[in-house]
Specification:
This protein is mostly helical. It is built from 8 helices and no strands.
């Protein structure tokens, strides 16, 4: 490998690591099938690699989210799953600003999920049950065999820690 190909591979790895999960989540929001979404994003990155676009794209995030959107809708068309919902969604996603806003939202979600993963285990578990799964404090307390007061304290602690972590991440 030449020096340039090492640089190219390194750039690609950085881009892949940063955008793979948010792109999968984005494609899944269109396809509503995580396996199809992952396949679509793998296709996007394969094409991105093969066409040597890493160092020629000014805004890889916008480019990749646009490619992900296009590939997801290609998959829908090929599966003949173009429901009214999908057609409406495709019309909404044609606006470049919408893609930029959506990409920012998915990147922020990815940062949030990473920061949640850094919380202490009990705090992380309780916060996920409450905020991601929609459990009530009482349901969490019953599920984990702890008091409602402990749930309240852990959620308060978790949110405080997340605010600190997110403030430093942004």
């Amino acid at each position: 490998m030449t020096h340039d190909s090492h640089k190219y591979k390194s750039q690609f790895q950085v881009i892949f690591k940063e955008y793979y999960n948010p792109l999968c989540n984005f494609a899944n929001s269109i396809l509503r099938d995580s396996a199809l979404a992952e396949d679509a994003i793998q296709d996007v990155f394969t094409s991105f690699w093969q066409k040597s676009k890493v160092d020629t794209i000014d805004n890889p995030k916008a480019f990749l989210f646009q490619c992900a959107k296009n590939r997801a809708f290609e998959v829908l068309r090929s599966k003949k799953k173009m429901s009214d919902y999908a057609l409406k969604l495709e019309r909404e996603y044609t606006d470049v600003l919408a893609i930029e806003e959506l990409s920012e939202r998915y990147m922020l979600k990815e940062k949030l999920f990473r920061k949640i993963a850094e919380l202490p285990p009990q705090c992380q578990k309780i916060l996920k049950l409450s905020k991601l799964n929609g459990f009530t404090y009482k349901e969490i307390a019953t599920e984990l065999d702890i008091s409602v007061k402990t749930v309240e304290n852990q959620i308060g602690r978790g949110l405080r820690l997340l605010r600190l972590k997110m403030a430093t991440a942004l």
